[in-house]
Amino acid sequence: MKQASEESKEARPVSQSEIDAKLLKYESFIDDKLKPDLRKILEKRDQIDRELSQYLQLRNTLEMIREQKLKVFETQVDVGCSFYLQAEVKDLSKVMVKIGADVFVELSPDQALTYIGKKEKFLSHRSELLTEQAAQVKAHIAFVIEASRELMNISGEKEKKMRDDFM
Prior knowledge:
Layout: H1 2-9, H2 16-68, E1 73-78, E2 84-89, E3 95-100, E4 103-107, H3 109-166
Antiparallel strand pairs: 1-2, 3-4
Helix pairs in contact: 2-3
């Protein structure tokens, strides 16, 4: 009785077709699930980083206006398709700030700086979370690749054993 249960516990040899099927499954999982997930995460992070960059640029501009006590500000405005026009801002007492979903609010420079500080923290945190998610997906990809290598190594060891048996 013991002998039968011990024999059933022994690992049965894995066929090359089973290894090939498993390798194909791993490859499909990487290509169909993990890589698209990683691409989406990185795209979201890049979008957040671009938005964060715009807020930082606005903060720097507002601080420069405040430090230099400017009454008029000359700038270039993007009117679309990276086409810029010269503009002169004569009233610096109010600033239009995007608060999300293409909604803008008129704020004083001090209010805008307060809002921008909060938005920077929020966007930085979101960017960090997405970076961590991307690292996790990359780790999963590396894990699956390593599992595939181990399967290929099992296959390679089988072939080597067969060659050694015949020699």
